Amino acid sequence: MTNNLAVVFRELGRFEESLDHLNRSLTLIPPKHVVGRLMITCSVGMIQHAQRKHEEAARTLDEMLSGCTAIDYQPGIALAQMVLCNIHRALGNLTTSVEHGRAALTLARQLKLHRVECEVLNSLAEAALAANDVDHAEMVYAQAKEHSAHHSFARFEARALEGLAHTARARGDIAEAERHWRKAIDRYPIGMYDSTHAQQHLASLDDETTTCFRCE
Predict the structure, then answer these.
(1) How far apart are CA 127 and CA 196, in angstroms?
(2) pLDDT digits (tens, 9 = 90+) for 4-13
(3) How wide is the angle at C-alpha 149 spanned by C-alphas 144 and 154, nearest 5°?
(4) DSSP-assigned states of every residue in 29-47
C-alpha cells in the first residue's frame, strides 16, 4: 500500500510525499527481499531525477544497477539502464546516455518488456535531439509512438507526440508542433503531472528559449 501511494504521488508531481512513502517502504521490506528493495531504490532515483538532482540520481541508479547485476536480475538491469539513459542526457553526457539506452533497448526486446522498450525509445530520441540530430530523433520518436499505441501505453505515446512536436519546432514548423502538442495533451491520462510540460510548451510556442526537455 505504501509503495502504491508513492507511485500515485509521483504521477501527480508530489515528489516529497512520494519519497516519504518510498522510505517507509524500505523500512518494511526485509533485507532478504533484494529485488523489492532494488525496485524501490529505482523509484527513489527516478524522483531525484524529476527533482533535477541528477548527480544524486545517477549515484542511486548506479547502486541499483550494481545490485541487479550482482544477482543477474535482468528486468532490473534493463530498467536501471533506461533511467540512467535519461539521467545522463540531463547531465549532458550524451555518449553515456546513448550507451545506457541501447543496452536497455536490447535487453527490453529480449525480455519482451514492452513498457521499458517504449520509454527507452523516447529516451534515445531525446538524446538524439539534444545532439541536434533532428532526423534521427524524429525517426525514433515515430517508432516510440507506433509501439506505444500498439500496446496501449497512453503515457509513452503522449511523450512520443511531445517529441515529434519538438522535432517539428526544430525545423520551424510551428503549426505541426502545435498539432502534436495538442494531441499529446489529449493522450495523457487525466491528472498526470507529465501533461503540464506539453501545456507549457504549447503556451510558449513563440519563445525560442524554451527547453525541449523536462529535466535539465
Answers:
(1) 21
(2) 545 544 555 5
(3) 95
(4) S-TT-HHHHHHHHHHHHHH
In tens, the pLDDT along 49-64 reads: 888 899 999 999 999 9
pLDDT at 17: 66
Query: Is there a contact between 80 and 99 (Cβ–Cβ < 8 Å)?
Result: no
Given its phi and psi angles, is residue 52 left (phi above 0), alpha (psi -120 to 50 degrees) or beta? left
Q: Is 178 exposed, middle or buried (0-12, 13-18, 19+ CB in 10 A)?
A: middle
| Residue 34, burial from CB neighbour count under 10 angstroms (0-12, 13-18, 19+) | middle
CB 136 within 8 A of CB 128: yes
Task: Quote the CA–CA distance of 69 and 35 in Å, as a whole number.
Answer: 11
What pTM was estimated for this model as a whole?
0.81
Cα distances from 213 to residues 31, 71, 177, in angstroms, run 37, 34, 15
